[in-house]
Amino acid sequence: MQDGSRQSGQGIFLATNSFTYNDCVFLAHIFNKKFGLIVTVNKTGVKDQWRLNVWKISMPLLAELVGPYIIPTLPITQTSKRRGGGRLKCDIN
After folding, report:
1. pTM metric for this prediction
2. Which positions ≥6 away from 44 have C-beta within 8 Å?
C-alpha cells in the first residue's frame, strides 16, 4: 500500500497529485481542524499537481489516529541507523 512517502527525519507526503489545489487546501484545513494535524500543500514539480505534507511534529498524533486501522498481518516497524532517522520496514510472516 502506498499513496505517499516518508521523508527521512521529517514528516510524510500524501500523494494527492490528481486533486486540485483548492481540494488540497480544503483537505489540509480538515486535517488541521478535525484532527489537529499540521498539514501544508506543496508543489510536486509538475504543473497543476500538489501533495499534502504532514509535518514531523504531527507524526505521533497521525500514528495514533491511523494505528487502529493498520492490518495486523502487515505490521509496520521502524528501523533506524541513528536516533531520529531511519526507514520503514514491513515484516510479512
Report:
1. 0.69
2. 17, 50, 51
Cell of 47: 504543473
| CATH number for region 4-90 | 3.10.28.10
Which grid cell sits at 80? 533506524
Instruction: Using the CB atoms, write b or e for 20-29: b if 16+ within 10 Å.
Output: eeeebbebbe
All three cell numbers of 77: 516497524
- Quote the longest CA-to-CA distance of the chain: 42
**Residue bearing cell 486540485:** 20
Q: How far apart are CA 69 and CA 79, in angstroms?
A: 21
Q: Say what the pLDDT of residue 70 is.
A: 80
Element spanning 51, H or E: strand 50-54
Each residue's pLDDT tens digit, 61-90: 998 999 888 877 765 555 444 444 444 444
